[in-house]
Design goal:
heterodimer; A: 346 residues; alpha/beta; eight-stranded mixed β-sheet; globular; B: alpha/beta; Pyruvate-ferredoxin Oxidoreductase, domain 3; 4 domains
């Protein structure tokens, strides 16, 4: 039912064209500002008319996002954005549909929807703002908070074992999983672009600092002194190298990844070469989930873990409808109402 | 053989057997053939909750009752004239439904020692012998043996032969009621088109059953029921859930929209999902969601995109959808929510009927959450009322709850189906695109019926955001302003009330236009009330029947009718729910409730009794 008849030439947009007239109401210094800015920066470059873009959000700090975008948008109910987006995308496959969600929204109350949208592979761009805390309800632990975290609802420390979003997504057979962080805007923008370019359910986890309730949760990956030792940037076809002088790498010793120092014993040729299409290795990368506040842990990967396309749910459903229409071209309502057996009363 | 043939005005037959005996199929085949013979009819399937409870036990008994006649038929019949039982458990569970002096056709093979013990008869009991001394006519037929004999050359394994028993029985019944076997032969050929051996075996069993009826000395007479004198026209047979499917297909074509149906399977609503999933060529997309919440929220997403969006469930699933329903109320998007009610609370009795979700439908949401509630009154009426639900949702941009129940969802009746040309128009218009110089789009600016525009993605210049937070009038922007919230609450209520401008006036369905007693019902009680009121009126009583199909809002003139009667009786298959709405909205009248909550429809007899007692001021509290 699109109103477009002839595809007019794409207008030259600037990032400002995607900013709505609403005042942004996140706390000063919140990581969400960077994410909003990068999304608004990206929009002019994705080749989609503004009226064909929809942002769908659930509930939480991150979910206020659609109000700040001058596109179509729905701010819905807690956890349900993937399901709302599924209904929208299957009926309007030509739209570019973005889901904005947080760690509580996607992984706690909406946990069921996130796994099912990933396995079905609905063509959506899902941005998961992970700040490892409940912000909007003022500071309770979230399903990604680390064990022992002292919060308003866990004065003696959280007992919950946290979710590993990468492992969860790949376990649900996601076709695309990537990780970025608010403090690295250029990489964040690249990852958003990759998320957009993937046809299917693409999940981008974004480490996002909550300055009020969980400040510094990801400091170990942003701190200038330590970040090179704790973060591993993935690039397709490149060996896994990290470290302050790019002097460390990951080698596969059988099935076990291990950190090696590059030099005389090992060279780049001995290292694990990243392959975005390798499902098995993606599972191993997802297990790089150690507490990097401690020394000698596997570094935390950033970038595209896995990207492999398969037919999308919306495409398959619409194909079935088209096939049915071809097989039975004139959907005759009167025939349907009459059914197979009728009789006449005179 | 030349048995006496006697003519009957109406007959009720109840088929009962183990859930593996194929009694639902036998019943539905008899129904179709009876419909094609031109009788009026009404049916009541009565199946156990378990797919296959232990064979031979009372818990595993599946029943199907059909009431048909040459006169107008309004209910499946309080009690049956003929009871067909395939085993001892079926007899035990159903003997209470047989009229005094009625006929029992019993499969004697199902009354062995083990069958009696499974049915929990004591070893000393001989239930069939007891029946004979109770004034019933007992006809014993060893159906298993006869079917085996009939199919001895079929080459089928014993298990498959045994599964043809129900067709042998159907053949006997066809003979007994002078029915044509041809429609069922056609049905079998079609159903087993890829299994010819099975098809031929079933057909042979059916025809041999018919021949057996003719040849045996067991029956002293056979019966005919002439075609009914009902309104002229072309008819078909239909269940309520099937009618809902067709109504949605009709609304899809008449609105010119694509349809999205998000659903999660639940008894007794799933057949609507099954039916729609076969209508993709009508542009209907069905989505079996991961849960009830995803079912309704995916539909909300589709509605935002400009589709005719529906979701379906039964009471417990509706409870899970309530938060999303209030979102749809806040977003003011068209959405149809189908509730095929069952007996509750909680899991309750999933295969039994009840009208106990009415207050949930009208009030059961957070905040002030008005929506429209419609209730079909019979299987065929499910077509009209789902069509109305879609029309109102689309034209008024409001969620509509369609409140059916298990009785009419699964029950069947003849339907004088409409032609597409005779259906009401459904007027849908999307907000037009805007130029950059135009004034900004106001998604919450309303027309005279307080309906907001439907501005769908893909329309240049309409970019806007909506959500569950309270909205400022006109702009739809977030607003925490106190006066605005008060105004918006009143607007949402008034908008729902203004739906009354596009619905028909309430009329008297049956009986007197004014007088001693008005019987006011809603939903699936229609047939029973109609029959009871007819009986009372023929008996010279001053009784009228009005049936409310539009519940929220009520028709504008509903109150006018109340003033014309001395007393008002409100029978419901719940603990008194519509009566609460009436007492709230019409405090100047006195309403008396009659409530039975047994998971089954009212019998005509108990309603007639309640009407008579109410007229003379006797208590009807049960």
């Amino acid at each position: 039912m699109s109103n477009q008849t002839v595809e007019a030439e794409l207008p030259k947009y600037s990032s400002k064209d995607f900013a709505s007239d609403q005042d942004v109401r996140w706390c000063p210094g919140c990581g969400d500002y960077t994410i909003l800015k990068q999304v608004q920066n990206l929009m002019p470059d994705i080749g989609v008319r503004r009226e064909n873009i929809v942002f769908v959000a659930g509930i939480g700090c991150s979910s206020r996002f659609p109000y700040y975008m001058d596109t179509f948008g729905i701010h819905s109910i807690h956890g349900r954005a993937p399901a709302i987006a599924t209904g929208l995308k299957t009926t309007r496959p030509e739209l570019s549909v973005w889901v904005i969600t947080g760690d509580g929204d996607a992984l706690s109350i909406g946990g069921n929807h996130i796994i099912h949208v990933l396995r079905r592979n609905v063509d959506l761009n899902i941005l998961l703002f992970n700040n490892e805390i409940y912000g909007l309800t003022k500071g309770q632990y979230s399903p990604t908070s680390r064990e022992g975290l002292v919060t308003k609802s866990t004065p003696m420390g959280s007992l919950d074992h946290p979710f590993n979003p990468a492992a969860l997504a790949l376990g649900a057979d996601a076709g695309f999983f990537a990780r970025a962080m608010d403090r690295d805007p250029k990489h964040l923008r690249d990852m958003m672009e990759r998320t957009n370019n993937y046809k299917g359910a693409a999940l981008l986890e974004i480490y996002q600092n909550c300055i009020v309730f969980n400040d510094g949760a990801f400091e170990v990956y942003t701190d200038k002194q330590r970040r090179n030792e704790t973060s591993l940037y993935l690039e397709d076809g490149k060996p896994l190298i990290f470290g302050t002088d790019s002097n460390k790498g990951i080698r596969l010793n059988g099935m076990r990844p291990e950190v090696v120092t590059l030099g005389t014993e090992f060279t780049a040729d001995d290292l694990w070469v990243h392959d975005e299409k390798d499902h098995f290795k993606a599972y191993l990368l997802a297990r790089f989930f150690e507490d990097n506040r401690h020394e000698d842990k596997l570094p935390r990967p950033f970038g595209v873990f896995y990207a492999s396309e398969r037919p999308t749910y919306d495409e398959k459903l619409n194909d079935q409808v088209e096939f049915a229409k071809e097989k039975k071209p004139n959907a005759d309502l009167d025939k349907l109402l009459a059914g197979n057996e009728t009789w006449v009363v005179k | 053989m030349s048995q006496k043939v006697s003519r009957r005005d109406d007959v009720t037959i109840r088929f009962a057997g183990d859930s593996g005996d194929g009694m639902q199929l036998t019943g539905s085949q008899f129904t179709n053939t009876t419909a094609l013979a031109g009788n009026d009819l009404s049916t009541l399937p009565d199946f156990p909750a378990e797919i296959r409870a232990p064979a031979g036990t009372v818990a595993g008994v599946s029943g199907f009752q059909i009431h048909f006649g040459s006169k107008a038929i309004h209910t499946p019949g309080d009690n049956c004239d003929v009871l067909v039982v395939m085993n001892a458990a079926a007899l035990k569970a159903n003997i209470k439904f047989l009229k005094p002096g009625g006929i029992i056709i019993a499969n004697s093979d199902g009354f062995g020692k083990r069958d009696l013990s499974l049915a929990k008869y004591s070893p000393e009991e001989d239930p069939l012998a007891q029946i004979q001394t109770s004034g019933y006519t007992l006809i014993q037929v060893d159906i298993a043996k006869l079917t085996k004999e009939s199919l001895k050359d079929s080459g089928l394994p014993p298990k498959d032969v045994d599964r043809c028993k129900n067709m042998f029985v159907l053949g006997i019944i066809y003979w007994l009621f002078s029915r044509d076997t041809e429609p069922t032969v056609k049905f079998i050929r079609n159903k087993f088109s890829k299994k010819e051996v099975i098809a031929e075996a079933n057909i042979k069993a059916l025809l041999d059953g018919y021949t057996y009826g003719n040849a045996t000395q067991l029956f002293s007479e056979r019966y005919t029921v002439e075609p009914a004198r009902i309104e002229p026209g072309t008819y078909r047979n239909i269940t309520g859930n099937e009618a809902a499917v067709l109504g949605i297909a009709a609304a899809t074509q008449k609105s010119g929209l694509q349809t999205f149906f998000g659903s999660y399977p639940i008894t007794p609503a799933s057949d609507i999902l099954h039916g729609l999933s076969r209508l993709k060529h009508f542009g209907i997309k069905t989505f079996q969601a991961e849960d009830e919440i995803a079912a309704v929220t995916s539909s909300i997403g589709a509605a935002f995109g400009g589709a005719l969006a529906l979701t379906s469930s039964s009471g417990p699933g509706i409870a899970l959808k309530t938060e999303a329903m209030s979102l749809a109320i806040m977003l003011e998007l068209p959405l149809v929510i189908i509730n095929v009610q069952r007996a509750g609370p909680s899991t309750g009795m999933p295969t039994k009927t009840e009208q106990s979700d009415l207050l949930q439908a009208v009030y059961g949401r957070a905040g002030e959450s008005p929506l429209v509630v419609l209730a079909p009154q019979s299987p065929a009426d499910c077509f009209d009322m789902i069509y109305e639900s879609c029309r109102i949702a689309l034209e008024h941009m409001i969620p509509v709850m369609f409140l059916s129940d298990g009785y009419i969802g699964n029950g069947a009746e003849p339907w004088r189906f409409p032609t597409s040309a005779n259906l009401k128009d459904i007027n849908v218009s999307f907000a037009p695109s805007r130029n950059p110089d135009d004034a900004p789009f106001l998604p919450y600016k309303r027309n005279e019926l307080l309906v907001r525009p439907w501005g769908i993605p893909g329309t240049p210049g309409l970019e806007h955001r909506i959500g569950g937070l309270e909205k400022e009038q006109d702009t739809g922007n977030i607003s925490y302003d106190s006066d605005n919230h008060h105004a918006m609450t009143k607007i949402r209520e008034k908008k729902r009330d203004l739906v009354a401008t596009s619905i028909p006036d309430q009329t008297i369905n049956e009986g007197v236009e004014s007088g001693d007693l008005l019987v006011l019902g809603w939903g699936s009680t229609y047939g029973s009330i109609k029959a009871a009121v007819n009986d009372c009126v023929s008996g010279g009583l001053s009784v009228g029947h009005t049936h409310v199909r539009y519940i929220s809002p009520f028709p504008k003139n509903l109150g006018d009718i109340f003033g014309r009667f001395n007393k008002i009786l409100v029978p419901e298959i719940n603990n008194g729910q519509l009566i609460k709405l009436l007492r709230d909205q019409f405090p100047e009248y006195f309403f008396e409730g009659y409530n039975r909550i047994r998971g089954v429809p009212f019998t005509v007899a108990e309603l007639t009794d309640a009407i008579k007692k109410t007229l003379v001021g006797e208590s009807i509290t049960v």
